[in-house]
Design brief:
The structure holds 2 protein chains of 2 kinds.
Chain A (H helix, E strand, L loop, with lengths): L4 E3 L2 E4 L5 E6 L6 E7 L6 E7 L2 E5 L6 E5 L5 E5 L8 E8 L10 E2 L3 E5 L1
Parallel strand pairs in A: 2-11
Antiparallel strand pairs in A: 1-3, 3-8, 4-5, 4-9, 5-6, 7-8, 9-10, 9-11
Chain B lengths: L4 E3 L2 E5 L4 E6 L6 E7 L5 E8 L4 E4 L2 E6 L4 E6 L8 E8 L5 E3 L3 E6 L1
Parallel strand pairs in B: 2-11
Antiparallel strand pairs in B: 1-3, 3-8, 4-5, 4-9, 6-7, 7-8, 9-10, 9-11
Classes of the chains: A mainly beta, B mainly beta.
């Protein structure tokens, strides 16, 4: 049973560019969330997708957007990249519409470096 | 802002010793989850404890939760070199997200 898978694992972008990160949730899971983890910090919630809609959003600017597909996979897009966007981006999935009390599983993350 | 705060920030122990780390949070929660993160890798789920539970065990791990004090602890018994990692507590306040602290970095010396 595959867990949460993310791609790419590492990438380097230039300031001002755009990036797309991809995530496939754990089998049987219908809810996907994205987190940003800066070096030495804990993960920060970006947003959550359920039924192809953004259901909840953290304190991130509109440059951060996402999408969920009918097969529950998801993309995170970041426009107009800033140096401060350099971080590990983690995808998390859960079952049953992300109901509280369900275990949330994380992928290995995508390391984004903005130069 | 981060809901949970782990204490201590860093911990160094000898192999075979126990490691204890604490987590404090600010608002009411539905459950609390502990995760392990090896350097530069993803988060591995360790234990979920619900707000109506006081203690849970999983192998060498023991988690306690005191909702009156808004705190939790994670005990790792008989530590091994492979336990070297960062440990995070994450609170679920029934708002569709987990709120993390900055983590405790544990180093197990051989």
């Amino acid at each position: 049973d595959a867990g949460v898978t993310q791609s790419p694992t590492h990438l380097i972008k230039t300031r001002g560019q755009q990036v797309t990160l991809r995530c496939s949730p754990k089998s049987g899971h219908d809810t996907v969330s994205w987190y940003q983890q800066a070096l030495g910090q804990g993960p920060q919630f970006i947003f959550q997708y359920y039924e192809e809609e953004e259901r909840q959003r953290g304190n991130f600017p509109d440059r951060f957007s996402g999408h969920q597909f009918p097969n529950y996979s998801s993309e995170l897009n970041v426009n107009a990249l800033l140096l401060g966007d350099s971080a590990l981006y983690l995808c998390a999935s859960s079952a049953l519409a992300g109901m509280s009390g369900n275990t949330i599983y994380f992928g290995e993350g995508s390391w984004l470096t903005v130069v | 802002s981060q809901q949970g705060e782990e204490d201590p920030q860093a911990l160094s122990i000898q192999e075979g010793e126990n490691a204890t780390m604490n987590c404090s949070y600010k608002t009411s929660i539905n459950n609390l989850q502990w995760y392990r993160q090896n350097s530069g890798r993803g988060l591995v789920h360790l234990i979920l404890i619900r707000s109506n539970e006081r203690e849970k065990h999983s192998g060498r791990l023991r988690v306690t939760l005191d909702t009156s004090k808004k705190s939790s602890s994670l005990l790792i018994t008989a530590s091994r070199a492979a336990d070297t990692a960062s440990y995070f507590c994450a609170t679920d306040a029934n708002d569709y997200k987990l709120s993390f602290g900055a983590g405790t970095t544990v180093t197990v010396r051989a």
